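Structure in, sequence out. Go:
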């Protein structure tokens, strides 16, 4: 039973990805943050942070973020 995950939100600001994850968890949608920031030069902000959800929850998760997220 291998479920697939989909990226639904990408931001250069890691704290916004964590806020998006918390909002989705409030709606009982499992979410994870994938940090694709450069570990060599974290202070200059190279890279992005991505929020991933199960593919079956992706549409609902996008709607929730579009309608309820005030940090975007």
């Amino acid at each position: 039973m291998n479920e697939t995950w989909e990226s639904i939100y990408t931001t250069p600001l890691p704290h916004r990805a964590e806020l998006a994850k918390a909002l989705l968890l409030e709606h009982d949608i499992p979410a994870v943050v994938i940090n694709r920031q450069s570990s060599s030069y974290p202070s200059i902000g190279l890279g992005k942070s991505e929020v991933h959800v199960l593919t079956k929850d992706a549409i609902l998760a996008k709607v929730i973020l579009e309608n309820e997220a005030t940090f975007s």
